[in-house]
Amino acid sequence: MATKNIAYALTKPRELTPMEREMPSAGPGEVVIRVFYVGVCGSDAHFFETGFRGETPIPMPFVLGHECSGIIVAVGEGVKGRSVGDRVTIEPQITCGTCKMCRSGRYNMCEHVKFPSVPPWDGFLQRYIVFPAHLTFLLPDACSLRVGALVEPLSVGAEACKVGGVCVGKSVAILGAGCIGLTTLLMCKARGASKVVVSDLFQSRLDAALEMGADSVVLGGRPEAAEEIRAQLGGGADIVFETAGSSKTASMTVDTLARGGQIVIVGNVPGKTPIEFMKLMYLGGSIQTIYRYRNNFDMTIGLLAGNRIPADRIISHVFPFERSQEAFETAIGQKDRVSKVLIQIVDEGAGA
Ligand SMILES: [Zn+2]
Ligand SMILES: [Zn+2]
Description:
Blueprint: E1 5-12, E2 15-21, E3 30-40, H1 42-50, E4 52-53, E5 56-57, E6 62-63, E7 67-75, E8 87-90, H2 100-103, E9 128-132, E10 136-138, H3 145-148, H4 151-164, E11 171-175, H5 179-190, E12 195-200, H6 203-211, E13 216-219, H7 225-232, E14 237-242, H8 247-252, E15 257-265, H9 277-283, E16 286-289, H10 297-305, E17 317-320, H11 324-333, E18 341-344
Helix pairs in contact: 1-11, 4-5
The site of one zinc ion has 5 residues, from helix 4.
C-alpha cells in the first residue's frame, strides 16, 4: 500500500500538479478509502478549463473529482456495516440533515451541502480520502470498481427518469448524447420505455447511443431535426430530456413534445432560453428540472448487480493517475469522442 497521499490538484486553469496531502484518518462514523477510479465529470472539466465556478474564481490548489470507487482501508469508531476491504462507491453529498429541504426528504436541495469538487470542498482525485461511512455503498461482485465509478453519473440519469415519469410504454426523446444523455438512455430502457430517440450534433455519439440501446437517432443542428424526432415517435415524445446543456436544445424541447408531455431539463443550460409557452400550453405540457439526485444509489447498484444495463460502454477513455493532466485535456478537447474519461489510480488487481 502506498504510504504517501498524493493528489493531482488544479493549480491554475488547465494545469494539474501532483502534490502531497495529509494522510487521512477515520474519525467517528467515517471510513478511509483507497481510491481506485475517479471519473471526470462535465463540471470538473469546466472548472479545469476556466478556473471559475460561475463568476467566482476557484481557490487553488483545488482537487477535482466526485465520481469514484475504491476500497475501505480504515474504519472509524461506531461505524456499522462497513469493514476494511469492502469495495465501495460514494454518494458525494454531505447534507446537514436538519434544514427544511433535508427534513422534507429533498436532501439534494440542502442549503448546507458539502459536495466534494465544488469549492471549498476538495474532491477525490487523490490516493486516499476520508468520508462518512453512511454515504458509502457496497459494490456487488458483478460490479467492477471501474464501473463502480459510474454509479454517480448513472444516478443523474436515474433522477431524470424518475422526475420525468418514464415507465413501460412511454416514448422518449433525449437531446444530447454525452455522458448524461447516455446514462439517461440506459435508465429509460431499464424502466421499460417503448421507444427512445436520441439526438446529438455528432454522429460518433449517435453511434454510441445506438450501441447502448437507442431505438433510433437523429442528427441534431439541422432545422428539420425536431420534426424528424416527432415523426419517428408518431407525434412527439411523452418525455423529452434536455441533456446537452444548451439553450438552443432547451428551446427545441417544446418542438419535440407530444400532447400532455413532460420536459425535463437535465443539462446545465447557461443563459436565457426562449420558450414558446403558447405552444407548450396547447400541448398541455410541463417543464421540470432536476438537481443532482436523491435516493438513487441503491437502485442503480441493483441494476448493475443484475447486469441489467451495459454501463461499461459509457467509458470511452481510461488514463493512469500520472496522466491526469492528459485525461482532463482529453475531456475538454475531444467532445465528439469522449463520453466518460476515467482516471485509474490503482490497478484493480492490486488489492488494498
Ligand atoms: Zn458527476
Ligand atoms: Zn440540509
